[in-house]
Automatic annotation (TrEMBL):
The lineage of its organism: Bacteria, Pseudomonadati, Pseudomonadota, Alphaproteobacteria, Rhodobacterales. GO terms for biological process: regulation of DNA-templated transcription. The gene is vjbR. It holds the Pfam family Autoind_bind. The keyword Transcription regulation applies. This is HTH-type quorum sensing-dependent transcriptional regulator VjbR. GO terms for molecular function: DNA binding. Keywords: DNA-binding, Transcription, Transcription regulation. PANTHER family: DNA-BINDING TRANSCRIPTIONAL ACTIVATOR DEVR_DOSR. PROSITE patterns: HTH_LUXR_2.
Length: 236
C-alpha cells in the first residue's frame, strides 16, 4: 500500500487540470482496492463540482432528484467534523431509504465511509469510499486505512482548491509534512503513532510540529491544530 499510495499522491500533486484530478481520484480506487471513490465539493459561490467513479446514470439521477437535499451522508458531513460510516447514519426516513435503494441498484455498494472537509472562504467537500463488503471486512478496512484516507482527502481537496484558483495565502504556509503531522494529531494519533505512519523519527516529527506552530502563531500543539482547522489547512 505504501508504494501505491506514494504513486497516487504524486499523481495528485501533478494534476494540472480538473480532468487530470478526476483521473487521479479514479486511480485511488485501485490504490485502496474499493469499488468507488468520490470527491464532491461545494465552492464558496455555491457551485458544485465532483470527481466520481459512480455510474453516470446514477450521478444524473442523483442530480435530477435533488437527492443532496435529503442525503444523510451530505447532511451529516455538513453538520459535523468527524468521518461518517454510512452504517451509523439515520436511513429511516422514506426518502433516505429510496435514495439508498436506488444507489445500491446503481452499484454504489452497501458500505461507505465519508470524510467532511472544510476549506477557506466557505468551501465544503466530502471525500467518500464505497464498497460491497461484509460489515466486519469494512470495519477492518476502515481501521487500517483511516490515517491514509485523512491525508489523501486533504491532498485531493488542496489540489482542487489550487486548480480552482481559490487557494489563499494561508494555505501555502504549511509544508506537506507539517500538514500531515497536524492532520494525524488532530485525528487523535499520538506523536509516536504519527511518526510511525509518516515513517519518520519522533524527533523529526517534533521539528515539523514546532515549525507549523511557529508559522500559525500558536502557543502549543493543540492551539496549532485548532488554528490549522479553522483556516481550512487540515481536514479531520
Amino acid at each position: 500500500m505504501s508504494r501505491k499510495l506514494d504513486d497516487a499522491l504524486e499523481r495528485l500533486a501533478s494534476a494540472a487540470s480538473f480532468d487530470a484530478l478526476e483521473g487521479a481520484v479514479t486511480s485511488l480506487r485501485d490504490t485502496f482496492e474499493v469499488e468507488h471513490v468520490v470527491y464532491h465539493a461545494v465552492r464558496s459561490t455555491g457551485e458544485r463540482w465532483g470527481a466520481v467513479t459512480y455510474d453516470p446514470g446514477w450521478v444524473q439521477t442523483y442530480i435530477d432528484e435533488n437527492f443532496q437535499a435529503i442525503d444523510p451522508v451530505v447532511l451529516n458531513c455538513f453538520r459535523r467534523f468527524t468521518p461518517a460510516d454510512w452504517k451509523t447514519l439515520d436511513w429511516s426516513p422514506r426518502a433516505a431509504r429510496t435514495l439508498l435503494a436506488e444507489g445500491i441498484a446503481h452499484g454504489i455498494g452497501n458500505q461507505g465511509l465519508s470524510l467532511p472537509i472544510r476549506g477557506p472562504n466557505g468551501q465544503f467537500a466530502v471525500f467518500t469510499l464505497n464498497d460491497r463488503a461484509r460489515d466486519d471486512e469494512w470495519a477492518a478496512f476502515a481501521r487500517e486505512a483511516f490515517d491514509d484516507l485523512l491525508l489523501v482527502a486533504h491532498y485531493v481537496n488542496e489540489r482542487a482548491l489550487a486548480l480552482d484558483g481559490t487557494q489563499n495565502a494561508p494555505h501555502q504556509m504549511l509544508s506537506p509534512r507539517e500538514t500531515d503531522a497536524l492532520t494525524l494529531l488532530a485525528a487523535g494519533r499520538s506523536r509516536a503513532q504519527a511518526a510511525e505512519h509518516l515513517r519518520i523519527s519522533e524527533n523529526t516529527l517534533r521539528v515539523y510540529i514546532e515549525s507549523a506552530r511557529f508559522k500559525l502563531g500558536a502557543l502549543n500543539t493543540v492551539h496549532a491544530v485548532a488554528n490549522a482547522m479553522s483556516r481550512g489547512l487540515i481536514c479531520v
